[in-house]
Amino acid sequence: MTVWVGLTGGIGSGKSAAAQCFADLGVPRIDADATAHSLTASDGIALPEIRRLFGDTVFDTQGLLRRDILRKEIFASPSRKALLESVMLPLIFSEIKKQQETFADAAYGIVEIPLLTEKRQFISLIRRVLTISAPLEKRIGRVMARSGLTRGEVAAVISHQASESERLLLADDVLLNDGSLKSLREKTMRLHAFYSGIFASKPTQGKHNG
Q: Could you say which residues form the signal peptide (predicted)?
Protein backbone atom coordinates (compact mmCIF):
# COMPACT_ATOMS: atom_id res chain seq x y z
CA MET A 1 0.00 0.00 0.00
CA THR A 2 1.39 3.37 -1.01
CA VAL A 3 2.20 5.78 1.82
CA TRP A 4 1.53 9.41 0.94
CA VAL A 5 3.68 12.38 1.91
CA GLY A 6 2.01 15.79 1.84
CA LEU A 7 4.35 18.36 0.32
CA THR A 8 3.56 21.95 1.23
CA GLY A 9 5.10 25.39 1.54
CA GLY A 10 4.41 29.06 0.98
CA ILE A 11 4.28 30.79 -2.38
CA GLY A 12 7.74 31.01 -3.92
CA SER A 13 9.22 28.32 -1.68
CA GLY A 14 9.79 25.95 -4.58
CA LYS A 15 7.08 23.37 -3.90
CA SER A 16 6.50 22.47 -7.52
CA ALA A 17 10.20 22.26 -8.29
CA ALA A 18 10.71 19.93 -5.34
CA ALA A 19 7.69 17.82 -6.32
CA GLN A 20 9.08 17.54 -9.85
CA CYS A 21 12.43 16.38 -8.45
CA PHE A 22 10.63 13.55 -6.67
CA ALA A 23 8.69 12.72 -9.84
CA ASP A 24 11.97 12.58 -11.78
CA LEU A 25 13.05 9.87 -9.33
CA GLY A 26 9.97 7.83 -10.23
CA VAL A 27 7.87 8.82 -7.22
CA PRO A 28 4.11 9.12 -7.90
CA ARG A 29 3.07 12.77 -7.78
CA ILE A 30 -0.39 14.27 -7.29
CA ASP A 31 -0.85 18.04 -7.59
CA ALA A 32 -3.82 19.56 -5.73
CA ASP A 33 -3.61 22.79 -7.74
CA ALA A 34 -3.64 20.90 -11.04
CA THR A 35 -6.60 18.90 -9.77
CA ALA A 36 -8.45 22.11 -8.92
CA HIS A 37 -7.67 23.50 -12.36
CA SER A 38 -9.09 20.43 -14.08
CA LEU A 39 -12.29 20.75 -12.05
CA THR A 40 -12.77 24.29 -13.37
CA ALA A 41 -11.53 23.76 -16.93
CA SER A 42 -13.90 23.53 -19.89
CA ASP A 43 -16.74 21.17 -18.89
CA GLY A 44 -15.24 20.81 -15.40
CA ILE A 45 -17.64 19.36 -12.87
CA ALA A 46 -17.32 22.40 -10.57
CA LEU A 47 -18.51 24.91 -13.17
CA PRO A 48 -22.30 24.57 -12.81
CA GLU A 49 -22.19 25.23 -9.07
CA ILE A 50 -19.74 28.11 -9.49
CA ARG A 51 -22.07 29.68 -12.05
CA ARG A 52 -25.04 29.23 -9.72
CA LEU A 53 -23.25 30.89 -6.80
CA PHE A 54 -21.22 33.58 -8.57
CA GLY A 55 -23.29 34.29 -11.66
CA ASP A 56 -22.46 34.77 -15.32
CA THR A 57 -20.01 37.61 -14.71
CA VAL A 58 -17.19 35.17 -13.88
CA PHE A 59 -17.61 33.38 -17.23
CA ASP A 60 -16.73 34.52 -20.74
CA THR A 61 -18.97 34.26 -23.80
CA GLN A 62 -17.63 30.77 -24.53
CA GLY A 63 -18.63 29.52 -21.10
CA LEU A 64 -15.07 29.39 -19.80
CA LEU A 65 -14.31 30.48 -16.27
CA ARG A 66 -12.71 33.92 -15.99
CA ARG A 67 -10.17 32.99 -13.35
CA ASP A 68 -8.82 36.53 -13.11
CA ILE A 69 -12.24 37.97 -12.28
CA LEU A 70 -13.07 35.20 -9.81
CA ARG A 71 -9.65 35.58 -8.16
CA LYS A 72 -10.18 39.30 -7.61
CA GLU A 73 -13.64 38.70 -6.18
CA ILE A 74 -12.56 36.12 -3.62
CA PHE A 75 -9.39 38.02 -2.72
CA ALA A 76 -11.50 41.05 -1.82
CA SER A 77 -14.15 39.16 0.16
CA PRO A 78 -13.50 36.46 2.77
CA SER A 79 -17.14 35.37 2.59
CA ARG A 80 -16.94 34.88 -1.19
CA LYS A 81 -13.69 32.97 -0.75
CA ALA A 82 -15.36 30.69 1.79
CA LEU A 83 -18.25 30.17 -0.61
CA LEU A 84 -15.91 29.06 -3.39
CA GLU A 85 -14.03 26.77 -1.02
CA SER A 86 -17.30 25.14 0.01
CA VAL A 87 -17.63 24.03 -3.61
CA MET A 88 -14.03 23.26 -4.47
CA LEU A 89 -12.48 21.64 -1.40
CA PRO A 90 -14.76 18.56 -1.24
CA LEU A 91 -14.28 18.00 -4.98
CA ILE A 92 -10.50 18.34 -4.76
CA PHE A 93 -10.41 15.97 -1.78
CA SER A 94 -12.46 13.37 -3.66
CA GLU A 95 -10.37 13.64 -6.82
CA ILE A 96 -7.09 13.26 -4.91
CA LYS A 97 -8.41 10.10 -3.26
CA LYS A 98 -9.30 8.69 -6.67
CA GLN A 99 -5.83 9.46 -7.98
CA GLN A 100 -4.21 7.86 -4.94
CA GLU A 101 -6.06 4.63 -5.64
CA THR A 102 -4.32 4.36 -9.02
CA PHE A 103 -0.90 4.13 -7.31
CA ALA A 104 -1.40 1.11 -5.09
CA ASP A 105 2.03 -0.49 -5.38
CA ALA A 106 4.57 2.31 -4.88
CA ALA A 107 6.49 2.54 -1.60
CA TYR A 108 5.42 6.15 -1.23
CA GLY A 109 4.04 9.06 -3.20
CA ILE A 110 3.94 12.85 -3.03
CA VAL A 111 0.76 14.92 -2.80
CA GLU A 112 1.53 18.58 -3.41
CA ILE A 113 -0.94 20.58 -1.29
CA PRO A 114 -0.01 24.29 -1.05
CA LEU A 115 -2.66 25.10 1.57
CA LEU A 116 -2.23 22.01 3.72
CA THR A 117 -1.57 24.10 6.83
CA GLU A 118 -4.71 26.17 6.28
CA LYS A 119 -6.97 23.29 5.18
CA ARG A 120 -6.30 20.57 7.72
CA GLN A 121 -8.97 18.23 6.34
CA PHE A 122 -6.43 17.14 3.71
CA ILE A 123 -4.16 15.70 6.40
CA SER A 124 -6.37 12.60 6.44
CA LEU A 125 -5.06 11.85 2.92
CA ILE A 126 -1.41 11.64 3.98
CA ARG A 127 0.88 9.98 6.50
CA ARG A 128 3.70 12.50 6.71
CA VAL A 129 4.25 16.22 5.98
CA LEU A 130 7.22 17.66 4.11
CA THR A 131 7.44 21.46 4.26
CA ILE A 132 9.51 23.27 1.64
CA SER A 133 10.98 26.37 3.26
CA ALA A 134 12.91 29.32 1.84
CA PRO A 135 14.00 32.76 3.05
CA LEU A 136 11.30 35.39 2.58
CA GLU A 137 13.36 37.56 0.22
CA LYS A 138 14.08 34.59 -2.04
CA ARG A 139 10.39 33.70 -2.12
CA ILE A 140 9.39 37.24 -3.05
CA GLY A 141 12.06 37.45 -5.74
CA ARG A 142 11.05 34.13 -7.30
CA VAL A 143 7.38 35.08 -7.50
CA MET A 144 8.12 38.53 -8.92
CA ALA A 145 10.38 37.02 -11.59
CA ARG A 146 7.87 34.44 -12.79
CA SER A 147 4.61 36.37 -12.44
CA GLY A 148 5.32 40.02 -13.08
CA LEU A 149 3.63 40.95 -9.81
CA THR A 150 5.00 43.86 -7.82
CA ARG A 151 6.70 43.37 -4.49
CA GLY A 152 3.64 44.75 -2.72
CA GLU A 153 1.32 42.37 -4.54
CA VAL A 154 3.47 39.37 -3.64
CA ALA A 155 3.64 40.51 -0.02
CA ALA A 156 -0.16 40.77 0.03
CA VAL A 157 -0.50 37.18 -1.17
CA ILE A 158 1.97 35.98 1.46
CA SER A 159 0.09 37.85 4.19
CA HIS A 160 -3.05 35.85 3.38
CA GLN A 161 -1.26 32.51 3.74
CA ALA A 162 -0.26 30.61 6.86
CA SER A 163 2.90 31.81 8.55
CA GLU A 164 6.19 29.99 8.11
CA SER A 165 6.16 29.03 11.79
CA GLU A 166 2.73 27.41 11.38
CA ARG A 167 3.94 25.37 8.40
CA LEU A 168 7.07 24.28 10.24
CA LEU A 169 5.03 23.23 13.27
CA LEU A 170 2.96 20.91 11.07
CA ALA A 171 6.01 19.37 9.38
CA ASP A 172 7.58 15.99 9.97
CA ASP A 173 10.40 16.98 7.62
CA VAL A 174 11.71 20.31 6.32
CA LEU A 175 13.62 20.93 3.11
CA LEU A 176 15.38 24.30 2.99
CA ASN A 177 15.31 25.47 -0.62
CA ASP A 178 17.69 28.42 -0.43
CA GLY A 179 20.10 27.54 -3.22
CA SER A 180 20.30 26.28 -6.77
CA LEU A 181 18.16 23.70 -8.56
CA LYS A 182 21.12 21.33 -8.34
CA SER A 183 21.13 21.72 -4.57
CA LEU A 184 17.38 21.10 -4.48
CA ARG A 185 17.80 17.90 -6.49
CA GLU A 186 20.50 16.66 -4.13
CA LYS A 187 18.29 17.31 -1.11
CA THR A 188 15.31 15.54 -2.65
CA MET A 189 17.52 12.56 -3.51
CA ARG A 190 18.53 12.28 0.15
CA LEU A 191 14.91 12.51 1.25
CA HIS A 192 13.94 9.93 -1.37
CA ALA A 193 16.44 7.48 0.08
CA PHE A 194 15.17 8.25 3.59
CA TYR A 195 11.50 7.82 2.69
CA SER A 196 12.14 4.66 0.69
CA GLY A 197 13.85 3.18 3.73
CA ILE A 198 11.39 4.13 6.45
CA PHE A 199 8.26 3.32 4.48
CA ALA A 200 9.61 -0.06 3.46
CA SER A 201 10.32 -1.01 7.08
CA LYS A 202 7.82 1.14 9.02
CA PRO A 203 4.87 2.02 6.77
CA THR A 204 3.09 3.89 9.58
CA GLN A 205 6.08 6.16 10.28
CA GLY A 206 5.02 9.78 10.83
CA LYS A 207 2.80 11.77 13.15
CA HIS A 208 -0.13 11.96 10.72
CA ASN A 209 -2.45 9.02 10.24
CA GLY A 210 -3.83 9.41 6.74
A: none
